[in-house]
Design brief:
The structure is a homodimer of 205-residue chains. Chain A has 205 residues and is mainly α. Chain A has a domain at 69-201: Tetracycline Repressor, domain 2 (Orthogonal Bundle). Helix content of chain A is 75%, strand content 0%. The first copy, chain A, has helices spanning 12-30, 37-44, 48-54, 58-83, 88-101, 105-110, 113-121, 126-152, 162-183, 186-201. The termini of chain A are far apart. The relative contact order of chain A is 0.11. Chains A and B meet through helix 7, helix 8, helix 9 and helix 10 of A and helix 7, helix 8, helix 9 and helix 10 of B. Chain B binds a DNA duplex (30 and 30 nucleotides) through helix 3.
Chain lengths: 205, 205
DNA sequence: GAAGATACCGACTAAGCGGTATCTTGTCAA
DNA sequence: TTGACAAGATACCGCTTAGTCGGTATCTTC
């Protein structure tokens, strides 16, 4: 008969969220494949049994992080910002400006969690790829929609394809973050985004 | 007493190159951390003893791949192309055009080996970061230099910072490749690069 | 308050990993 | 021809990994 040290009060939701949060951090720092379940458990003081009660496999945990942590994070920021500006150009510039201003150590060191997972996992696991792709598509769509409305209200140059431009903008952002991360340089990151601002400005009428 | 089945004729250089090539492929397909030495050996029919004769650690092998495979690959293409065009805009457009035209399965599936390693390894290993950064800096410098000469000869708009623009161009390329890879879509990849061409064209006088 | 379900515990397993030790064999200079 | 060393071969080691499983504690329901 073993004596078990269990949590006094149960809280399955909190346990699940703790795991999701810790997994998010661990994946951000080490990548998914190199992410260690043992380390995640150590950082949460959740037991292995509890982990495997909530998530069937490491893979399931990773997919949950994508859908429940990374997705909503991005959705909140971009959707809200572009919704509250009638001029999409101003909204986009503001978003980039925020990224420039809030260039903290985490972004410079670990980059974009979405992009990290894309580069690592999308060729290796179709479910990962689809989960990530859904987020990207939503992101591009939000930007494209804003540009489209901007064209309708005469604030964005006509004759350009909003979908293509939105795709390029998102790609450039990921590129800037990636390069800033490798340079370990806030200024390189900011210089790169500044050029993106110049490009965006050129989309105005 | 063991019976050893050895290669009839020795060829240390070839052995080293075989290892480098196989490691490059394995890293491209699985990432560095998940790259398996056993798999590399299986694909080369080189023995573990031979591997560890040529490379001290897995890490050393990875660093050698960066310096001796990935670096030269990029250097050749970009340096030559921009050197043989007097108009840098035309040179850049041609390079992008080539990328668009030669969008093969490997690029769409596995993306850019340089970018992959950056996102995975640069926060984890300072030597990796520096090796990769050297390549990026060289790349940016080649583009910046071309733009600068273009400004001098009146083919590129003055008043813009060549270094910053070059940085942005490289970032955008990596971004386009990354997004195309996740979309598993040649056309998305091409649409993205086409927008980059539009941007580059806007740099002309 | 008993029963059943849910949540959680932690020792264990099997496989794969990078790396090492010890050996043999090919090469080439003396 | 031989000695020395580089190159290659293979068995093995310690460690970490994701995942399992029998068991226990808490919560819910009746």
């Amino acid at each position: 008969m073993m004596t078990m040290v269990q949590r006094k009060t149960r809280n399955p939701e909190q346990t699940r969220n703790d795991l999701l949060d810790a997994a998010y951090t661990e994946i951000l720092e080490s990548g998914f494949q190199a992410a260690s379940l043992e380390r995640i458990l150590a950082n949460t003081s959740v037991s292995k049994g509890a982990l495997y009660h909530h998530f069937g496999t490491k893979r399931d945990l990773g997919l949950a992080v994508i859908q429940e942590v990374i997705g909503p994070q991005l959705e909140g920021r971009w959707f809200n910002m572009l919704a509250q500006h009638s001029d999409p150009i101003r909204g986009l510039l503001k978003l980039i400006e925020e990224k420039i201003a809030s260039a903290d150590e985490s972004v410079i060191r670990y980059g974009c969690p979405l992009n990290n997972l894309i580069q690592e996992m999308s060729p290796l696991d179709e479910s990962f790829r689809q989960g990530l792709q859904k987020i990207i598509e939503r992101w591009v769509e939000v930007v494209a929609e804003a540009l489209k409305e901007g064209q309708a209200s005469g604030k964005v140059r006509a004759g350009t394809a909003p979908q293509d431009i939105a795709l390029f903008i998102v790609a450039s952002i990921e590129g800037c973050v990636g390069l800033g991360k490798n340079a370990q340089s806030v200024t390189a990151y900011q210089r790169c985004l500044k050029q993106l601002q110049v490009y965006i400005q050129s989309l105005a009428v």
